[in-house]
Amino acid sequence: MSQNTIHLQCKSCGGNLDIDRNQSLIFCPFCGSRELLIDSDAVAVEKIRQQTEFKKWEREDLQQQREENEKYKNSKAGNVALVFAIICGLMFVGSVTIIRSVPNFLRSLSLLLQTASFLLSFLIRKETVRLPEKLQLKAVRTPTLLMVIGFALFIVTFIFTAM
User: Fold this and answer.
1) Over the stretch 57-110, which tens digit does the pLDDT of each residue have?
2) Do 157 and 119 touch, CB atoms closer than 8 A?
3) 5 strand-pairing partners
């Protein structure tokens, strides 16, 4: 049973009734009788108070979420992502000019993926690019994951540089 369900007995037949707390008309499935459920003034005032408090909490949550999103959007991580995107992009341009072997090609590909990862992280964080709802992650923010992928690709780039 949900929180909004209350248990009553039919005044006509004594049957057990489970009704929604917000219902004002009770219908007994056993005897067919109908009864108007009238709240006392105190109950009506309490319902209004609870609804008002809930809306206040909802507004506060929304405001807090906006503030957190604004902090996240303007965090230094976005600038870090942009700097690394530029560095990796320059390294990619330099490595493309000397592709003479498979390791150099793979290194260039790794640098290209790093550049794309960091740049996309920056653009999503600054809300220049919006991902479709089905591509957004719930547990981790997508720009953060893209930065982690970019940094992980440093290992791959280092391995291909060492070859």
Assistant:
1) 888 888 888 888 787 777 788 888 888 899 888 888 887 776 677 777 888 888
2) no
3) 20
Confidence band of 45 (pLDDT split at 50, 70, 90): low
Distance CA 15, CA 11 (A): 8
Average pLDDT over residues 49-63: 82
CA–CA distance, 5 with 25 (Å, rounded to integer)? 14
Query: At 51, which helix (H) or strand (E)?
Result: helix 41-73
SS3 sequence of 88-153:
HHHHHHHHHCCCCCHHHHHHHHHHHHHHHHHHHHHHHHCCCCCCCHHHCCCCCCHHHHHHHHHHHH
Max Cα-Cα span within the chain: 93
Contact 18, 1 (CB under 8 A): yes
Task: Quote the mean pLDDT of the chain.
Answer: 80
